[in-house]
Each structure stands twice: as C-alpha cells, then as structure tokens.
Amino acid sequence: MKAFLLTSFALTAFAFNSILCRMALGGGDIDPAGFTLVRLVSGAVVLLAIILLTNKTESLSKTGNWVSAFFLFAYAIAFSFAYVGLTTATGALILFGFVQITMVGVALAGGRRPSTLEWCGLVVAFGGLIYLVLPGLSTPSLISSVLMAGAGISWGFYTLRGKQSESPIVDTSGNFVRAVPMAAVVLLVFLPRLNLSARGAFLAALSGAIASGIGYTAWYAALKFHTATRAAVVQLSVPVIAAFGGWVFMSEIAERRLFIAAALILGGIALTILAKETD
After folding, report:
1. CB neighbours of residue 227 within 10 Å
2. Residue 27 and residue 112: Cα distance in Å, rounded?
3. What per-residue confidence (pLDDT) applies to 116?
4. Please, what is the angle between helix 2-26 and helix 88-109, to 10°?
5. Which of 225, 256, 257, 262 has the fewest CB atoms within 10 Å of its CB?
6. Helix residue ranges, H only, the chain
7. Does the global pTM surpass 0.90?
8. Residue 142 and residue 154: Cα distance in Å, rounded?
C-alpha cells in the first residue's frame, strides 16, 4: 500500500507539473530559463523548510550530490526549452520514450534482464502511449527534439540514481539546491530574453514547490519498491493522468482514444507489477 500511494502521488505530481509548464510557457507568461530557475529555487526552498520543520538539520551536510543535481538540472532546462518548439503529444512521446530506453538500456548493460512479463508490459504500455499521441504528432523541430531526448535521458539517469537514496527528502533537497546555480548561469546567458510575469512566476513556483519538489521526493521514496524496468514503465501513465487532468480541470474534450490508450498503458503497467523478477 505504501508503494502504491507514493508512486501514485509522484506520477500525479509529474502530470500536474506538465500541465503547469504548458500553461506558463504556452501562454507566453515566462521564458524557459526563467521558468527553470524559479521552479528549482521554489523546490529547494520548500524542501529545506520541511527539513527544518522536521528537525533533520543534522543531515543537511550529507544532502544530495552533484551528479544527481546535474541530471536534475539537465532534465529541467532541456524540458523547458524543448517545449517551446514541440506539441504536447510529440514532446510526451520523445520524453517518455527516451526515459524507457535509458532505464531499460542501463538495466540490460548491467546484466539485469527484465522478465517476460516485464517485457510484455513495456511493449503494451509503450504501444498505448504511441496510440494516445500519434494523432497529434507533427514534424518536430530537430533542435527541440534533441533537447527533449536529452531531458528523457537525464530523467532516466536521475531516476536510476534515486534507487540508491536512503533519505529521499534530504537527497532531493540537496539536489535541488545544487541545481539552482546551474540554472542561474543559464539565466544569465539568456538574460536579454527574460520574460517574467506574475502569473508565469506563480505557475513556475507551484510547479517547483509541489509538483517537482514534493513529487520528486515521493518518487525517490517509491523507487526502492520497483525494478528499473517497472519504474520506467509506470511513468508512461503520466501522459494519461495529464490528459484526464485536462479533461477534469481545463474542460478539454475526452475522446474514446484516451480511454483505450489508458487501458493499454495501465494494462502494461499491471503486467510489470505482476512480474516477480527483480533487478
């Protein structure tokens, strides 16, 4: 039950993170570099506050590490800039496709072979994702596609490193703090293009504090319950959750395709969960 609750919360947070990002960048309320910096700063502030309130300050000297922080930063900055030139459907396919390729590839390279059920679940779930986004695909910008692929690879490695975390909130906090100066350097480079409205800053802060900071902490805590393959596959539910979120909160039209794709993706996830082999 703990694994289910942590995973469900994290994946829902990821979905709302995508919604908030689309609202901010798509509406022209903020630029990608500004969004990334506000997002990371907000996440760091909220997580540090939680640590202080829970009297875990003695752990701050051991919080996070620079390698994980770099992958977090690389994912966040590439994600923001990529969505300037990609549709939501195209971006989702590239991002989650490369997350799967990265995590499953690392598992195979390390000699950890997914079970038959895990392979079946991966194929079914990924097929459901393609079925969901295929009608909305357009010829994407090469630069934006490469950036989103980089975001997917970075998130895949960040997730894999999270399997080693013994204190999710402390590690996530440290990673956010370390990623802030990296984002600040990028903002300085793109300072002439800075576009920061109150609405854009609010959406970015909400994305960083709740959907990213707390959501990523829950994900780090959930990872110890999943194999690398299963962790890769369950993330394919994020586009479905985001689509349903758009239907419920933004009055977007829900077509039959959404429900069929959801059944395929959730069915594939169920297969990986049923698999007994562990990495």
Report:
1. 22
2. 44
3. 81
4. 140
5. 256
6. 2-26, 32-53, 66-82, 88-109, 116-133, 142-162, 168-189, 198-206, 215-222, 228-234, 237-249, 256-274
7. no
8. 18
Per-residue confidence band for 279, with pLDDT thresholds at 50, 70 and 90: very low
Q: With H, G, I as helix, E, B as strand and everything else as coil, classify residue 196.
A: strand
Residue 252 clears pLDDT 60, i.e. is over it? no
Distance from C-alpha of 6 to C-alpha of 244, rounded to nearest angstrom? 20
Tokens of 276: 């007994």
Tens of pLDDT along 144-162?
Answer: 888 988 999 999 999 999 8
- Take residue 187 and report the two structure tokens written for it: 């903002």
Nearest to 242 by CA among 7, 19, 83, 87: 19
Strand, helix or coil at 277?
Answer: coil
Confidence label for 278 from pLDDT (cuts 50, 70 and 90): very low
